[in-house]
Amino acid sequence: MVSQYNRWFHPYEINEQYKKRVAYFCMEYGIDQALKVYSGGLGFLAGSHMRSAYELRQNMIGIGMLWKYGYYDQERNDDQTMRPHFQQKFYSFLEDSGITVRVLVNEHPVLVKAMVLKPEIFGTVPMYFLTTDIPDNDHLARTITHRLYDPEPQARIAQSIVLGVGGAKVVEALGGAEIYHMNEGHALPLAFKLFEDYGKLDEVRKRLVFTTHTPEKAGNEQHDIHLLNRMSFFNSVSLEEVRELTAMHGQMFDHTLAALRLAKVANGVSQLHGEVARDMWYENEGVCEIKAITNAQNFNFWADMELWQAQERNDDQALSQRKEELKRQLFKEVANQAGKLFRPDVLTIVWARRFAAYKRADLIVRDIQRFADLVTNEEMPVQVIWAGKPYPFDFGAINVFNKLVKLSQQLDNVAVLTGYEIELSRKLKQGCDVWLNTPRRPREASGTSGMTASMNGGVNVSIQDGWLPEYARHGENSFVLPIADTSQPNEAQDDEDHGNLMRLLEKEIVPVYYHNQERWRHIMKQSMRNVVPHFESNRMAHQYYEELFNS
Predict the structure, then answer these.
(1) Counting Cβ atoms within 10 Å, is residue 160 exposed (0-12), middle (13-18) or buried (19+)?
(2) Which of 49, 92, 420, 550 has the fewest Cβ atoms within 10 Å of its own Cβ atom?
């Protein structure tokens, strides 16, 4: 039977406001626990966008990659330290769309097959996941779609070609799109495919929009332009033309800068990140306008409805009761993984997200004795849980994770959990009292995990970075640290932030939790009430049409 998804098709009537055909390209999507094609925040954000586009009946499709081994499975060694495990994944709910296209990688033909995720499966717009792992390809070509963020630079380049050029050809086979949205620069070869199709930069610009997600240098890829050219990254556009189009005349090719020169409009992912991105890029000639559209998360997917309804009725007893149940559910996972019995009447702090150096997972343990005093205080004890996946080849980040594992073995009410994927993330956000966020400002472009914690009555305790300055009212819906002097060396900033964080916990947060439950509940309810609708992804999905696609 031929799939109806071998052409541009939606099983709903398109909403008039969103009738422009948009193809959304992203390297990772966090759609559901069952579909392991994401690593962290970029994927969680893209997943929420796909759900909201469906809820709003937008004329959009998602283009992604079908990673045979996912990102990785986070397992443990004998001594409880972490071990990355790469295991094949199989998905019975993806269907063959009937579309296979051909791309060139290293001047070598590679076939790309598109598997479709139908909207009714997880409540998203139609999504097409690309794979090269098919019998018609040779071994090397089949490995292109094996690992998300492969450590080998040439494999990463090949992955971009498959996503960008392969994805564009799949869209063409479906009947074409009016707007191509690159969520991060990974799909950049798409721009050169469009140039080949339309022959003019203006025609490319009409169709291309771009979202930049990071002020981190590591997130803004650069490669040797000759290597990219040899690998067919620019499709069949000549190197001279590429240099002319992108104004890159040196040896290194900056992917983000190229995207900003080829798109009609771009955006950062929080108001602060918009400013940071403009400061970073506006000094370069020929870049497009960089707007700011703050990230958001999907309420229907992430929020615990029973807790939410108790807050809506202003039923404090039901709210406290449900929160206690959610804490118990989380603590079953703690008992299972760490052999520790956490108590629901104890203030519980969670730090959980991707383990990257700038996110400073270990900031709170900068002074071990002071941390130990905080968690073992008999009158006002504190439980702390860490979770998150370091990049499997970032040995510095893995060392921090393992250091925290070792520390947790010395303290009864401290736990480090492995397997930070969608369902564990949900348990942590629903079961925490405090959601701790400690990036080095202004390095966190948005950070959406705190939004979903807020939807579930978790109180954000955070550095004023990313989305937080738009949301946080200290002592009212969250607790924020004073802004550190970012002109200081990292070491000094870390000392300042650590001192402020510990003072805030010891003098304000812990005493309020134990001695002023009424005020704590007020803060908890405000944290919920102030996050929706502004930080809910239906607002974001609407804004992308208004400010990017229809502009």
Answers:
(1) buried
(2) 92
Residues contacting 327, CB < 8 A, separation 6+: 342, 344, 348, 431, 433
- Rounded Cα distance between 148 and 65, Å, is 8
Which uninterrupted H or E stretch holds 99? strand 95-105
Q: What is the DSSP letter of 70?
A: -
Q: What angle do CA 106, 254, 359 make, to 5 degrees?
A: 110
Decide: helix, strand or coil at residue 36: coil
C-alpha to C-alpha distance for 39 and 46, rounded to whole angstroms: 12
What distance in Å separates the CA atoms of residue 60 and residue 133, rounded to the nearest whole number?
26
Residues in the chain: 551
Q: Give the whole-angstrom CA distance, residue 276 versus residue 120.
A: 39
172: three-class secondary structure by DSSP: helix
Q: Is 105 helix (H, G, I), strand (E, B) or coil?
A: strand
Angle at 33 between CA 32 and CA 35, to 5 degrees: 70
The set of residues, in sequence order, having a beta carbon less than 8 Å from that of 133 and lying 6+ positions away, is 66, 68, 142, 143, 145, 146
Report the C-alpha gap between 540 and 551 in whole angstroms: 15
Computed on alpha carbons and rounded to an integer, the radius of gyration of the chain in Å comes to 23
Q: Minimal CA–CA distance to 269: which of 358, 183, 148, 160? A: 183
* 8 Å CB contact between 168 and 105: no
Using alpha carbons only, what angle is made at residue 204 by residues 203 and 207, rounded to the nearest 5 degrees? 95
Token digits for 122? 């997880």
What amino acid occupies position 429? K
Q: Are 181 and 209 in contact (CB under 8 A)?
A: yes
Residues 81, 38, 57: CA angle, nearest 5 degrees = 150
Task: Please give the single-letter amino acid code of residue 526.
Answer: Q
Rounded to whole angstroms, how far apart are CA atoms 447 and 294? Answer: 10
Give the pTM.
0.97
Pair type for strands 73-76 and 82-85: antiparallel
Measured in whole angstroms, how far is the alpha carbon of residue 204 from the centre of its chain?
27
